[in-house]
Design a protein that fits this description.
single chain, mainly alpha, 3 helices, 11% strand, elongated
């Protein structure tokens, strides 16, 4: 996923969607009781997270889907 650190034109960098999801799930942002979309966006934009913005809505949606699937997998494993 193409990102821009600190919303700067010269701050372009890339990180795979699955890595963004992994970092989010390992962070304290994943434990906040906010709606998932809000927490994920905060993680991605806040200085304590990735401190970045993005243009590609489809790439963000893929990150969101990866996080949702990981949460479902955890719920299923704890229900057994």
């Amino acid at each position: 996923m193409r990102l821009w650190r600190d919303n700067s034109i010269d701050g372009e960098w890339e990180l795979p969607e699955d890595e963004i999801a992994r970092q989010f799930l390992a962070s304290g942002w994943a434990e906040i009781t906010w709606p998932l979309d809000r927490a994920l966006r905060a993680f991605m934009t806040d200085k304590a997270g990735l401190s970045s913005v993005w243009e590609d809505i489809a790439a963000y949606d893929r990150v969101f889907d990866i996080v949702m699937q990981a949460r479902r997998d955890v719920q299923r494993s704890t229900q057994r």
